[in-house]
Write a structure and sequence with these properties.
Layout lengths: L1 E5 L9 H14 L4 E4 L6 H10 L4 E6 L1 H11 L5 E6 L5 H6 L6 H8 L2 E9 L2 E3 L2 E4 L4 E5 L3 E3 L6 E6 L23 E7 H12 L13 E5 L1 E6 L7 E4 L2 E5 L2 E13 L7
Parallel strand pairs: 1-2, 1-3, 3-4
Antiparallel strand pairs: 5-6, 5-16, 7-10, 7-14, 8-9, 8-13, 10-11, 11-12, 13-16, 14-15
């Protein structure tokens, strides 16, 4: 059984013809199913949990990265697989998983190539891509063995499960950010460059950060991030959304998510 969870953007008139083509292709392939819509009045996490409880084995997010991030926790601990039909801008996750946009994604769903990937876990919340602290006033304890602090002012510390790698990434860095290796990567990189990327992403013009701008990379399984300023907590951005505050403990959760991938996946 399939659940197709439509992002709010699907209601935009510019996507009408694409949605019709997608639904026709799903019917032709014999993998059509129940349709649910994410709106300001609905909670996608509850929609997914209820569907899985009723026997759904594949939850397909029709939309962009934000919809996918919002339902990850509901899939953990179940036998349901995550599928994606990318629609609209901000498709970093689909690119990493090798999923083409629009109706071409239906053929990937039909082929049903399954991979199990790691997640990150921050306190009691799972995340798919990263958790970031936009401050240099922090202390980072890695695997309980050593502590590091940003040396440069205006630095960003991030812990990645995986990230999209630009084409010109140096070979020495290509083995990092693999969501199947049971390892997270803690990075320290320039804050200004990342903030510029966030602004561009808002307008659908995101550019991939150059990996060689990263000051440090630490492969880790568990990390604790704390503020160095007494009685001050710092916001933590999880999968692109402000969600928690320091102190936080982040660890890898191996093989936690079952996903349908395409031939062009980047891992």
């Amino acid at each position: 059984m399939y659940l197709y969870l439509y992002d709010a953007l699907v209601g935009d008139k510019k996507h009408e013809k694409t949605i019709v083509r997608i639904e026709h292709r799903l019917t032709d392939l014999g993998i059509n199913g129940r349709i649910a819509r994410s709106t300001i009045l609905t909670n996608p996490k509850i929609i997914v949990r209820d569907a899985i409880r009723r026997g759904v084995k594949t939850v397909v997010a029709v939309g962009g990265d934000s919809l996918i991030h919002s339902i990850i926790t509901s899939l953990v601990g179940t036998d349901a697989a995550l599928g994606i039909i990318p629609l609209g801008d901000n498709q970093s996750l689909a690119n990493i998983l090798g999923i083409p946009k629009n109706e071409a994604a239906c053929d990937v769903l039909s082929a049903r190539k399954i991979e199990y990937i790691d997640l990150g876990k921050i306190n009691n919340t799972y995340f798919l891509t990263s958790a970031s602290v936009l401050s240099d006033a922090i202390k980072i304890t890695c695997d309980g063995n050593f502590t590091v602090q940003p040396v440069k002012k205006k630095s960003q510390t991030s812990v990645y499960n995986f990230r999209e790698m630009p084409d010109d990434t140096p070979p020495a860095y290509r083995h990092f950010f693999n969501p199947q290796d049971g390892i997270l990567e803690a990075t320290i990189e320039p804050l200004g460059f990342s903030l510029t990327n966030n602004i561009l992403k808002t307008f659908g013009k995101e550019r991939s950060p150059k990996i060689d701008r990263i000051d440090s990379i630490f492969p880790i399984k568990k990390v604790r991030i704390e503020s160095t300023e007494p009685d001050k907590s710092i916001p933590v951005i999880v999968d692109g959304q402000p969600m928690l505050e320091t102190p936080v403990t982040i660890e890898v959760a191996p093989q936690k998510l079952k996903v349908i991938v395409g031939k062009g996946r980047l891992f």
